[in-house]
Amino acid sequence: MDAAGHVNATEREDSQRGLDPSNRSTDSVMNEGIFWKLDDSTNLVAVQVILILAYSTIILFGVIGNSLVIYVVIKFKTLRTVTNFFIVNLAVADLLVNTLCLPFTLVYTLDGQWKFGQVLCFMLPCAQGVAVHVSTITMNVIALDRHRTIVNHTETKMSKDMCAAVIVVTWAVSALLASPLAIFREYETIDLSPEESIQVCMEKWPSSRMNGSIYSISALLVQYVLPLAINCVAYIRIWSKLKSHMMPGGGIDRQQRKKKTTKMLLTMVVVFAVSWLPFHAFQLAVDIDSTVLYMKDFKLLFTAFHIVAMCSTFVNPFLYGWLNNNYRAAFLSVCKCYQPFTSRKRRPRGRETHRNADTLYTECESTNV
């Protein structure tokens, strides 16, 4: 299944349950619709309040945190490195989810029908799919670039022009992978009774439900399993190299900075893996056994797993501020809680006395991290 989140999950639930007037009688649809209303805990006011608070918190922290990451990298020249540009790319993708997807997902979840028209029905699920693909591909690019420079001893830095080209290709490939979410989609009005009708936005595959399951499992492999495997292999080798070897021409302080930044990037991958695991596991269960769709409180469970997955869209800026001295100094400088980032001086130590004390070291430099 696509990673467009709960919007598409609800659509899949509707379509697999048979909300299609071409193959279901009106009485059947109406009776099943009444059953959902009676058995769906997301209709309870207390549950809706909790969901509103959860999604609002994610949106608020996601917009503030990711916007701050983008701003400080643009503002401070010492942070304009290749790795940081990739981190900005992650922040842009997460910001896209926070602003263009989650508010609509929340309304759709609470209201139970699509009220945003046909155009957004095709655009929003695809946009979230693109954003998730961008995140996973970018994490892979960062891991492979660091593997190239640390494990393979490649001294040549990736140029900023090459970095821009990689980012463009990342978005193009992500759009291609997410395009079925816009192509195989249908916006319809379903009559539940003579007096009641709802608008639905659901996946519409050419022949059978099996096509949707094939795409779903393929997306799981491309969005989660394969990227996670690549990241794990790359960072295990990087960590092993940093732990047991001294890089040629590098001092102890340089090695420590490499380890700290590798730890930060590895933590990003772990957070992504853990936050998305319940969502993917639950959706895999749905693909294997469609009777899961009829489980009590299916919608509530799916929404809860989606909230956990979406937490990954705002956690990264907190990781940067916690694990990276330069990001932390830049954040505090912007918030006027600390002396200006560009004028903050490091206390010289060892060989660092020969360096310019007026400029902070950028821990996310593409090769000399």
Automatic annotation (TrEMBL):
Cross-referenced Gene3D superfamilies = Rhodopsin 7-helix transmembrane proteins
The gene it comes from is NPY2R_0
Localization per record: Cell membrane
Mark the transmembrane ranges: 45-74, 86-110, 116-142, 163-184, 214-236, 264-286, 298-323
* PANTHER family recorded: NEUROPEPTIDE Y RECEPTOR, NEUROPEPTIDE Y RECEPTOR TYPE 2
Q: Which organism is it from?
A: Liparis tanakae (Tanaka's snailfish)
Give one Pfam hit by family name. 7tm_1
Official protein name in the record: Neuropeptide Y receptor type 2
G-protein coupled receptors family 1 profile domain residues are: 65-320
The record's comment on protein family reads: Belongs to the G-protein coupled receptor 1 family.
Please report the record's description of how this protein sits within the membrane.
Answer: Multi-pass membrane protein
Query: What are the protein's UniProt keywords?
Result: Cell membrane, Disulfide bond, G-protein coupled receptor, Glycoprotein, Lipoprotein, Membrane, Palmitate, Receptor, Transducer, Transmembrane, Transmembrane helix
Region entry Disordered: which residue ranges?
Answer: 1-25
